[in-house]
TrEMBL record:
The keyword Oxidoreductase does not apply. SUPFAM superfamilies: ATP synthase (F1-ATPase), gamma subunit (SSF52943). It is a peripheral membrane protein. GO terms for molecular function: ATP binding; proton-transporting ATP synthase activity, rotational mechanism. It is found in: Cell membrane; Membrane. The gene is atpG. Produces ATP from ADP in the presence of a proton gradient across the membrane. The gamma chain is believed to be important in regulating ATPase activity and the flow of protons through the CF(0) complex. Keywords: ATP synthesis, Cell membrane, CF(1), Hydrogen ion transport, Ion transport, Membrane, Transport. This is ATP synthase gamma chain.
């Protein structure tokens, strides 16, 4: 049986751990509110953008813009994996990585070459240990990113697609549904299709616009931006999901500390009672010996 001092030290250690997990829970909660606010501000712009682009692309032929064209032979697939830079958020990062690796395995089984573009240290560090090649990695960006990161990443994959270094590009990220749900989500962002663009628009495409100077000119400007908007959406969702997952993980850890403290306190009391009983037995035994 553990000594009283050992049990007491364990209780003190767990209480200190609880203070840390509780503080991290509060920090994650505050960051989650900020991240949700960013999504709320971005959503009206994204919805209107999708609506207008869906209307533009609805009747467009794939030859209008190279980002709409499907390459004759699909040989190389790019997977853009978005994870967090830090851990302590439960299985969140593992879920994103597993979804990306599953997709990579499927494409490899079809005889295609798979190349990764990683945003976030957790994804990068894991993919580095696999057989797949990392073309670009963006670390220490998820803590304080803006649309410029989406522009940089988006331009990288657009240039590779136009140069036919990539024939398909998929985005894997954590979609923020609620505080309790952040499922891994996979979107094909290149080549784009008018159907996919239209699906992003809530309520479908609208026909209330008159476009000047031409539909083709607007598509040339808006289609590359659509890729960057999709990337930014993935960054925002993943960042928000990370904070939600960390808040839940730290809440669970705090509850576990309470349970362990309760168990160890019970053990401490039992150990202390056993020690007192043993001392009393020694005293009684000594008294009986003196009487004899």
């Amino acid at each position: 049986m553990a000594s009283l001092k050992d049990v007491q030290n364990q209780i003190v250690s767990i209480k200190k751990t609880k203070q840390i997990t509780k503080a991290m829970n509060m920090v994650a909660s505050a960051k989650l509110r900020g991240a949700q606010s960013r999504i709320d501000r971005f959503r009206p712009y994204a919805d209107k953008f999708y609506e207008m682009l869906g209307d533009l692309a609805a009747g467009a032929d794939s030859s209008v813009h190279p980002l709409l064209e499907v390459h004759e032979e699909i040989k190389t697939v790019g997977i853009m994996l978005v994870t967090s830079d830090r851990g302590l958020c439960g299985s969140f990062n593992a879920n994103m990585i597993n979804a990306a690796l599953k997709l990579a395995a499927e494409k490899k089984a079809e005889g295609k070459t798979v190349k990764f573009y990683c945003v976030g240290k957790r994804g990068r560090d894991t993919i580095k240990k696999t057989e797949f090649e990392i073309i670009e990695a963006y670390a220490d960006e998820m803590g304080s990113f803006d649309f410029n990161l989406a522009i940089t990443v988006g331009n990288t994959v657009i240039d590779a697609y136009l140069a036919e270094e990539l024939d398909e590009v998929f985005l894997v990220f954590g979609k923020f549904v609620s505080v309790a749900s952040q499922p891994p989500t996979t979107l094909q962002i290149l080549p784009m299709s008018s159907d996919a663009v239209g699906e992003e628009a809530e309520g479908g495409a609208s026909s209330e616009y008159i476009y000047e100077p031409s539909v083709e000119g607007l598509l040339a400007e808006l289609l590359p931006r659509f890729v960057k908007v999709q990337v930014y959406r993935g960054l925002l969702d993943t960042s928000t999901s990370e904070h939600a997952a960390r808040m839940a993980a730290m809440d669970n850890a705090t509850r576990a500390c309470d349970d362990m403290t309760e168990t160890l306190t019970l053990l401490y009391n039992k150990t202390r009672q056993a020690a007192i009983t043993a001392d009393l037995m020694d005293i009684v035994g000594g008294a009986e010996a003196l009487k004899g």
